[in-house]
Design the sequence.
């Protein structure tokens, strides 16, 4: 490994023998060559009570440092010391989240000290950790300081422990391939780019955001300005219309001022006309009064003659009315007698008709009796039918009993069916509730990983394509017996497997992946169950023997899963051998971890992983807090669901059988009903035949009784006729007396009526003369009243017009704003002279002007004010727009300058990385490319580095992702990308922890050769490569340092270790071997 002629240097990793864990340890460092450390490289790492170390000091070399040691010896502890000693966060390591967890178990304090190379003088950073309160105390070059000062110093040396391109712990190796293109670009810029590159990138993103804001602002200002101009141009027309409307309103105002004066003049002229008309009416009224006096005197004389005659007419009319009344009474008496005679005749006629009907009924009854006697003779000759009726009754009773039996069976079946239906609905609801819980789990899967959910939908539609059993994502197939225990299973099984599909056959899995991953381009995981089932594999120890530590179950017993899923979990995660405990287990954890066969265990809220060193048999533990379950806390008992489905099918089958039985009973009942109806008809026929003789005898007896009654009820028609004739003769005598009285009264009435007529004729003559005189008088009086009313109206009109004229004059002066004694101003007189002089013309002109003014709707003085205000706003907007446009131009110039300082160097940097990366892959007979990827050249926050690799000649270049390549391929790609960054030498050191674990031997050897060539070439960044094992016959370089981590109870304590004696013995042994040859 090294040449003896070159200078040798030793590095000791010391471990205190006084440690409670016992034993000692050394880390040997053998390197040759000069010390060419770059700025910020690690010169020394010192650890005290830190993880597995009591006291250890490591002196790394300036180039490649291979840290080799078995699992559990403390290799990753050195990585943790580098990270935490340089103010890194615990999250970077992916182990314990509290700083106190990194203090050695059993100790209250621990410390890490790191010495960094600097040409002006090395920097020593010391971090003391308090395990009890998770606090840290910092020292920088022996002086106390805060963590921010340390972070600033580390940042100045371009050390970035949070950058996966510079610092890649064991737990974060898989996350490198998960980095997005954007994250990878930023990490690369920080790691190997010049200091101003990342700064320019951030400025470009900020400038671009500001440019977008300015562009939007300019666009909004331009749009607003354009709208304001258009709106003002439109309002300019409104302003012109407003002024035109104002001119019309002024004319209207003048017309309205002149109109009351014209109205006043018109009213005054009307008043003069009324005065003249009133004088003429008074003269006409006096002439009419003198002409009507003689006519009134003659009318009075006629009225004196008419009054006695009218009294006589009234007396005669009363006498005529009395005679008429008496005549009417006699006429009524006569009519009554005539009616009595008619009633007697009608009564006799009715008696005659009744006698004729009586004779016919007697004859008909005798014939009916004869017919019934003849039919009775025929019926008496037939045999007795009582036995036949008894037989029919017996058969009807039998049918009734059979019908009762059928109804009972139908009722029993109905009750059973109702009970079964109720039970079916209850089971159906329980099954629906279970399906709803499964839907909730699927919804969570869809929200967290849409590709897996889409693949599940495809699988359900195409399950017939597969020969073996296929199960959906484990998170849907695993069913917790108690939701409180879901956190243990979810913590124990990786999320990639929780969303993985499980196949019984490998060929089915390959077919599935071809469909969903290659054709549908979905990112899904799939696994194949072991060929031999492991689901019933027994644990290494019975759970009863562990109950004294608080363990109550193994992980497998906490959930149910299909056979293939459980088999895979037992083989891959050994769920059958992982015990779960409680608070008692937590309290006894120091004793529990000493128990053999326990590798992983769970307490109530923590997970413990136990590792045992193959060399020293020392135990190291890692614990982490359990997080609440997110996917498995929704439980559905698969066995119960299967039983429910089976019970539902059984109930459906039984209800179907009951329906068939009910149909059969219904048919049987229908047949009985038909037979029953036939027997009832037959019984009715026999009963009718049996009762017919008795009915005939009863009918004959009834008819004979009726005949005897009719013979006894006969009347003497001749006697009735004689009595009727005597009554009619007596009534006619009374009629004669009444007629004589009637004739006397009618003669008296006729005489009185004639006398009354003569008096009426005399009255008519006098009345006609009086009417003629009254008509003439009324005509004269009417004309007199008309003239009189006219005079009254003209008096009232004169008074009204005088008041109106006073009011019109007052109103006209008010409208013109004149004082009571003031005359019309000259300016109004001149303006009025240009306007029409009549009301009609003024009204016509007013209507015309108002119509024109009304055409200008929606206009007011605000239109002019808004127009002027908007003109000022437009000027301000134009000024703002000019300033914004200028500012945008300045920002675009800044972007151009920043882009020139960022994009071209970045392209050169990516080109250099691509050259190195491609060369590395070509040396491995593979292909790889690195390019700068962006969808839009102006979207600087979307730029990213894309890594594309090809490991097989038959495939195409594929982007490096966490799903497409295997774990070994991702490790090779990650390692070669980091090596491509190594030669650019922009960071002081790089750390890669156990990245070769997933590689096959061929790729591991190739990658190792590339690492040695690259990291040992001249002055380059310091490189830490941590691995638990190395292949044989590897190529080594003189510039590399190999640190062997020895950790065990048989190691010498550091104060007894003699490195010179050890080297002397090794050389002597080598010399003896050479002599023997």
Sequence:
């Amino acid at each position: 490994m090294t040449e003896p002629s070159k200078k040798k240097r030793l590095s000791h990793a010391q471990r205190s023998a006084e440690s409670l864990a016992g034993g000692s340890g050394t880390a040997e460092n053998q390197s040759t060559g000069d010390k060419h450390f770059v700025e910020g490289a690690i010169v020394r790492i010192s650890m005290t009570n830190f993880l597995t170390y009591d006291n250890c000091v490591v002196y790394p070399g300036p180039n490649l440092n291979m840290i080799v040691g078995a699992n559990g010896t403390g290799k990753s502890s050195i990585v943790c010391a580098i990270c935490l000693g340089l103010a890194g966060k615990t999250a970077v390591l992916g182990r314990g989240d509290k700083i106190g967890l990194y203090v050695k178990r059993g100790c209250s304090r621990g410390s890490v000290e790191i010495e960094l190379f600097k040409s002006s003088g090395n920097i020593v950073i010391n971090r003391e950790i308090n395990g009890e309160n998770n606090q840290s105390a910092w020292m920088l070059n022996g002086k106390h300081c805060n963590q921010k000062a340390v972070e600033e110093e580390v940042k100045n040396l371009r050390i970035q422990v949070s950058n996966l391109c510079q610092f890649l712990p064991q737990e974060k190796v898989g996350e490198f391939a998960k980095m997005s293109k954007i994250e990878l670009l930023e990490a690369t810029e920080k790691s190997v780019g010049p200091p101003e590159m990342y700064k320019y990138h951030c400025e470009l993103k900020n400038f671009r955001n500001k440019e977008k804001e300015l562009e939007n602002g300019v666009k909004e200002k331009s749009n607003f300005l354009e709208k304001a101009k258009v709106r003002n141009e439109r309002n300019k027309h409104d302003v012109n219309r407003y002024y035109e409307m104002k001119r019309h309103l002024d004319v209207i105002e003048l017309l309205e001022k002149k109109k009351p004066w014209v109205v006043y003049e018109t009213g005054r002229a009307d008043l003069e006309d009324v005065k003249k008309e009133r004088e003429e009416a008074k003269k006409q009224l006096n002439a009419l009064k003198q002409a009507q006096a003689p006519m009134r005197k003659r009318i009075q004389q006629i009225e004196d003659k008419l009054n006695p005659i009218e009294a006589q007419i009234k007396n005669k009319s009363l006498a005529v009315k009395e005679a008429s009344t008496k005549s009417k009474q006699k006429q009524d008496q006569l009519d009554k007698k005539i009616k009595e005679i008619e009633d007697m005749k009608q009564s006799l006629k009715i008696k005659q008709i009744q006698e004729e009907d009586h004779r016919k009924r007697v004859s008909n009854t005798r014939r009916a009796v004869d017919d019934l006697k003849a039919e009775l003779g025929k019926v008496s000759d037939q045999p007795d039918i009582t036995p036949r009726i008894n037989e029919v009754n017996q058969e009807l009773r039998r049918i009734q009993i059979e019908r009762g039996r059928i109804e009972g069976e139908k009722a029993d079946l109905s009750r059973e069916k109702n009970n079964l239906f109720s039970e079916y609905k209850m089971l159906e609801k329980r099954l629906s509730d279970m399906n709803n819980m499964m839907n909730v789990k699927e919804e969570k899967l869809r929200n967290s990983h849409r590709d897996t959910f889409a693949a599940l939908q495809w699988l359900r539609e195409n399950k017939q394509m597969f020969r073996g059993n296929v199960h959906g994502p484990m998170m849907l197939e695993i069913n917790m017996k108690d939701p409180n225990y879901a956190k243990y299973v979810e913590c124990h099984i990786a999320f990639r497997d929780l969303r993985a599909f499980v196949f019984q056959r490998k060929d089915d899995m390959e077919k599935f992946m071809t469909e969903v991953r290659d054709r549908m381009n979905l990112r899904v995981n799939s696994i194949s169950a072991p060929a031999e089932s492991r689901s019933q594999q027994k644990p290494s120890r019975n759970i009863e023997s562990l109950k004294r530590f608080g363990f109550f179950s193994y992980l497998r017993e906490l959930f149910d899963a299909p056979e293939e899923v459980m088999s895979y979990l037992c083989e891959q995660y050994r769920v059958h051998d992982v015990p779960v405990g409680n608070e008692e287990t937590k309290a006894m954890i120091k004793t529990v971890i000493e128990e053999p066969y326990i590798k992983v265990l769970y307490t109530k809220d923590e997970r413990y992983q136990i590792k045992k060193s193959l060399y020293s048999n020392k135990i190291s533990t890692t614990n982490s807090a359990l997080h609440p379950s997110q996917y498995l806390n929704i439980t559905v008992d698969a066995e119960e669901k299967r039983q429910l489905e089976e019970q539902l099918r059984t109930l459906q089958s039984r209800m179907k059988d009951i329906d068939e039985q009910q149909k059969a009973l219904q048919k049987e009942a229908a047949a009985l009903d038909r037979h029953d109806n036939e027997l009832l008809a037959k019984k009715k026929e026999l009963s009718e035949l049996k009762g017919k003789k008795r009915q005939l005898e009863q009918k004959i007896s009834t008819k004979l009784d009726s005949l005897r009654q009719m013979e006894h009820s006969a009347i003497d028609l001749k006697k009735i006729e004689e009595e009727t004739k005597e009554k009619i003769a007596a009534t006619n005598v009374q009629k004669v007396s009444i007629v004589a009285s009637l004739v006397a009264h009618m003669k008296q009435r006729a005489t009185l009526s004639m006398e009354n007529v003569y008096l009426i004729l005399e009255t008519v003559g006098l009345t006609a003369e009086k009417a003629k005189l009254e008509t003439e008088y009324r005509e004269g009086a009417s004309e007199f009243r008309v003239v009189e009313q006219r005079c009254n109206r003209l008096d009232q009109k004169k008074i009204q017009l005088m008041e109106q004229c006073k009011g019109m004059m007052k109103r006209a002066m008010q409208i013109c704003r004149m004082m009571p004694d003031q005359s019309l101003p000259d300016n109004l007189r001149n303006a009025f002279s240009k306007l029409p002089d009549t009301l009609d013309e003024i009204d016509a002109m007013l209507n015309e002007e108002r119509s024109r003014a009304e055409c200008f709707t929606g206009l007011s003085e605000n239109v002019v004010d808004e127009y002027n205000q908007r003109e000022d706003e437009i000027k301000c907007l134009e000024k703002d727009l000019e300033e914004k446009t200028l500012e945008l131009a300045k920002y675009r110039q800044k972007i151009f300058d920043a882009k020139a300082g960022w994009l071209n160097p970045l392209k050169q940097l990516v080109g250099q990385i691509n050259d190195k990366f491609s060369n590395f892959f070509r040396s491995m007979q593979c292909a790889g490319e690195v390019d700068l990827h962006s969808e839009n050249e102006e979207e600087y926050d979307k730029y990213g580095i894309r890594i594309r690799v090809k490991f097989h000649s038959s495939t195409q270049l594929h982007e490096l992702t966490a799903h497409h390549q295997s774990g070994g391929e991702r490790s090779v790609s990650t390692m070669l990308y980091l090596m491509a960054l190594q030669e650019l030498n922009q960071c002081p050191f790089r750390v890669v922890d156990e990245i070769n674990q997933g590689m096959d031997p061929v790729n591991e050897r190739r990658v190792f050769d590339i690492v040695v060539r690259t990291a040992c070439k001249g002055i380059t960044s310091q490189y830490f490569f941590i691995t638990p094992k190395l292949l044989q016959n590897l190529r080594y370089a003189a510039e590399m340092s190999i640190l062997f981590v020895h950790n065990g109870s048989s190691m010498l304590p550091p104060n007894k270790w003699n490195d010179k004696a050890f080297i002397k013995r090794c050389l002597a042994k080598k010399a003896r071997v050479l002599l023997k040859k």
Summary: The longest strand covers residues 42-50. Residues 1-34 have pLDDT under 50 and may be disordered.
